[in-house]
Specification:
Elements lengths: L3 E7 L4 H11 L5 E8 L5 H8 L4 E3 L8 H14 L4 E5 L7 H6 L4 E5 L11 H8 L3 E8 L9 E8 L6 H25 L8
Parallel strand pairs: 1-2, 1-4, 2-3, 4-5
Antiparallel strand pairs: 5-6, 6-7
Bound molecules: 5-O-phosphono-beta-D-ribofuranosylamine.
């Protein structure tokens, strides 16, 4: 059985990317990362990818004033590298219907809340400000809405009385690193290449 080809989109430190790389290297995820695309030239995620011997591409948003042109560039890079499943790992740019349609039902995202609670930015801060006692992590398929696509996997995280955004985020991140490779493995189990059974 051949491995599914992944493309990972990043903007920042890339700890989730690292968790995926580690899961592949440990034999827990049957996939290959074909390339990592960043919209930030200095994203540490790019460094992590290079260290792992993965092809990286920085696509500068300033070169593409129109979002659709930017996304066309991403899609052509993903297609040129035979990417079958797109993984958003801290990619801080909203995707338009153009991109979502190009990889329909084949884009995953991880969000640091139990969706549909606390979508959008600063989910941990939203949870603390609301005063919930339990929040968590969601992996979902990306559709045209903001953090609205079908949920693949969720895991709860208790909010402790003294939690700050940092302490809560740090605890949640450990769960993110467990759940994202697991959720990707689950999806891959449903999308084995035809003729490869
Ligand atoms: C994570 O908290 C993830 O849930 C959110 O963006 C952050 C990315 O962190 N979507 P990292 O770049 O993977 O370390």
């Amino acid at each position: 059985m051949s491995d599914i080809s992944l493309g990972v989109l990043v903007s920042g430190r890339g700890s989730n990317l690292q968790a995926i790389i580690d899961a592949i290297n440990d034999g827990n995820l049957n996939a290959n990362i074909m390339l990592v695309i960043s919209n930030q030239e200095n994203a540490y995620a790019l460094e992590r990818a290079r260290k792992a011997g993965i092809k990286t591409i920085f696509i500068n948003p300033q070169d593409y004033p129109l979002q659709q042109d930017y996304e066309q560039q991403m899609v052509s890079q993903l297609e040129a590298n035979n990417v079958e499943l797109v993984i958003l790992a801290g990619f801080m740019r909203i995707l338009t219907p153009y991109f979502v349609n190009a990889y329909q039902n084949r884009i995953l995202n991880i969000h640091p809340a139990l969706l549909p609670s606390f979508p959008g930015l600063h989910a941990q801060k939203q949870a603390l400000e609301y005063g919930v006692m339990v929040t968590g992590v969601t992996v979902h398929v990306v559709d045209e809405g903001m953090d609205t696509g079908p949920i693949i996997m969720q895991r709860a995280v208790d909010v402790l009385p003294d939690d700050t955004v940092d302490s809560l985020s740090e605890r949640m991140l450990k769960i993110e690193h467990q759940i994202y490779p697991e959720a990707i493995a689950q999806i891959i189990g449903h999308m084995r290449p035809v003729g490869d059974l």
